Amino acid sequence: MAQSSTNIYKRLESLEKHLAEEHPDNPVLAKAVHSFRKLDRVAQDIGLLDRNESYATHVTWWPMIAVLGTFSAGKSTFINSYLDMHLQRTGNQAVDDKFTVICYSSDNEVKTLPGIALDADPRFPFYQISRSIEEISEAGPQRIDAYIQLKTCPSEKIRGKILIDSPGFDADSQRNSTLRLTQHIIDLSDLVLVFFDARHPEPGAMKDTLAYLVSGTINRADSNKFLYILNQMDVTAKEDNPEEVVSAWQRSLAQAGLFAGKFYRIYNPEAAAPIEDPLIRERYETKREEDMAEINTRMQQIEVERSYRIAGMLEQTAETISNQIIHKLTSMLQKWKKRVILFDSIVFGTLLILSGVAFWLTDSWNLLKTFAENIMAYDTSSLIGLGVIVVVMAYIHFTIRRKVADNMAEKLPGKFGHDHTACKQYTQAFLKSTAGFRPMCFQKPAGWNGSNQNILAEVRSEANDYIQSLNDQFTNPSGRKVEVAVAAEEKPATESVTTPETRVE
Ligand SMILES: Nc1nc2c(ncn2[C@@H]2O[C@H](COP(=O)(O)OP(=O)(O)O)[C@@H](O)[C@H]2O)c(=O)[nH]1
Ligand SMILES: [Mg+2]
Fold first, then answer.
1. How far apart are CA 436 and CA 434, in angstroms?
2. Where is each Dynamin N-terminal domain found (predicted)?
3. Could you tell me which of 175, 167, 172 has the C-alpha nearest to residue 115?
4. 29 phi and psi, to 5 degrees?
């Protein structure tokens, strides 16, 4: 994906413009793009980023909701009803084996585009997704089409948001890449709805799915973004045993390690069989409406959560560079220096001893003396000889520098595991700091000068200003938006526990 640096800046400019237009009342996002560009310049000086790269492409600017869950749990039905249009195919058969990225378009028709279209779109979340698909599939970018498609639809509900529908999730038969893609989508999303099916509250055959989906969501800093939804509750109406079904569901979640979280029970009235008994029906409807209202509120709030997320990401990136990254690079540089000095001493020491021995054996010390005298007398051929010796020594020294640096860089992937991005950044920055033209006596990594340190401090204070202004905007105690702010604050999962038991009337 080679792009010129002017191209990346054009993209950022258009992103900034778009955000300013889309959110005239929330200038924080457009300003954040500007701060990201400052961060980019510092990172480029250090060598963490190429000239055509930007941290702005590492975040999702669009608020994203992912709908995941077991096969046939009613995910697509839920999405259709949310959008108020029949966009996704539904049914008990496996109807879709791809992720569908759904976004708004004002054209009055639905367009389905192949996954490869995600690359061409100037908006960033797709870029991020497609890049990771490229990483997971050895076959190259064309394979994106096998995993993902893009649908544009005119529903106002989705304007300014991105919704992702996922294929039936059955880990047993799922290819590794789908699992990894799911993980990636979870990481990018501001809200993740995890669907289960009341017809199989304890899905024995789904053990792996549960384990994968659920255990991956616990102990995360952002565990607040996961909503666990038991769908198709209408099927429990016949026997009127919702509590039993819910506790069976909770047991299987607990087996996967999930004891606390946001739990909901809903059904889709259009897909459901009618509930005959009017009393039962009323009870079911009330419960469903309560839970749907909460889910809908969360789906609306994600725009705010996204703004906090981006401001947080900005501050975190600046912080990571000034503390962790520089610290690590500095200690790598020290290690490198020590090794270069060691190898220099071994090689030049050996050469010195060998030549000493040669002079001694041939008893030709006087040659050395003559050579020195000739140099003092500016004898041309002796000066050329000295020049050759210096060049050879320099060549040996710079070869050692390069080889030691390459050798240390080669070992980095082993230390970073799957974190390809971090590995690439450290490798680039380390190679830049150890480049031949940089004197070895520099203690600090390349690009780590006073002015760049100030810029990072500036970016961090800007990020805090953004968070402050988001707080001012959304935590106004007399304003209507109080609820939003409460949800946007990061709360530990245990504080926001709503167990199904407490919700069952
Ligand atoms: N009884 C009942 N059936 C539902 C409900 N939601 C979806 N369905 C049906 O369950 C089947 C699977 O739904 P679908 O949305 O395709 O599931 P997905 O695989 O999770 O996308 C379809 O036949 C739907 O009509 C519900 O709340 N109650
Ligand atoms: Mg589906």
1. 6
2. 65-210
3. 167
4. -65, -45
State which of 67, 72, 98 you would mutate to test the pocket of ligand 1, scoring each by most atoms of that ligand within 8 A of its C-beta: 72
- Specify the pairing of strand 99-104 against strand 162-165: antiparallel
Tell me the C-alpha distance between 461 and 38, whole Å. Answer: 13
Phi, psi of 196 (to 5 degrees): -130, 170
- Paired tokens of 19: 């955000």
CA 73 to ligand 1 centroid distance, Å: 6
CA–CA separation, 12 and 246 (whole Å): 47
Minimum-distance ligand 1 atom for the alpha carbon of 70 = 20
Answer yes or no: is the C-beta of 70 below 6 A from any ligand 1 atom.
Answer: no
Whose CA is closest to atom 4 on ligand 1? 271
What burial class does residue 225 get, using C-beta atoms within 10 Å of its C-beta: 0-12 exposed, 13-18 middle, 19+ buried? Answer: buried
Ligand 1 contacts CB of residue 166 (under 6 A): no
| Structure-block tokens of residue 58 | 């590492």
User: Which residues are bridge partners to 149 per DSSP?
Assistant: 100, 114
| Ligand 1: residue whose CA is nearest its atom 6 | 74
Alpha helices in 72-123, H assignment, sequence order: 75-83, 117-120
- Say how far apart CA 173 and CA 162 lie, in whole Å: 27
**Closest ligand 1 atom to 79 CA:** 15
C-alpha 171 – ligand 2 centre gap (Å): 16
Q: What does each of the 505 residues of the chain score in pLDDT, given as a tens digit?
A: 444 556 778 878 888 887 887 777 778 888 999 999 999 999 999 999 998 888 988 787 888 999 998 888 999 999 999 999 999 988 876 656 788 999 888 888 888 887 777 765 545 456 656 666 665 555 555 566 778 888 989 998 888 889 999 986 665 555 666 777 788 788 888 999 999 999 988 766 555 666 777 877 887 878 889 999 999 999 999 999 999 999 999 988 888 888 888 999 999 999 998 999 999 999 999 999 999 999 999 998 888 888 888 999 999 999 999 999 999 999 999 999 999 999 999 999 999 999 999 999 998 889 889 999 999 999 999 999 999 999 999 999 999 999 999 999 999 998 887 677 889 999 999 999 999 999 999 999 999 999 999 999 999 999 999 999 988 887 755 444 434 333 444 433 333 333 333 333 3
Q: Which residue has the tokens 């890049």?
A: 131
CA 115 to chain CA centroid, nearest Å: 19
Q: In whole angstroms, what separates CA 159 from the centre of its chain?
A: 23
CA distance 65 to 123: 16
Q: What residues pair up with 100 in beta bridges, in sequence order?
A: 149, 165
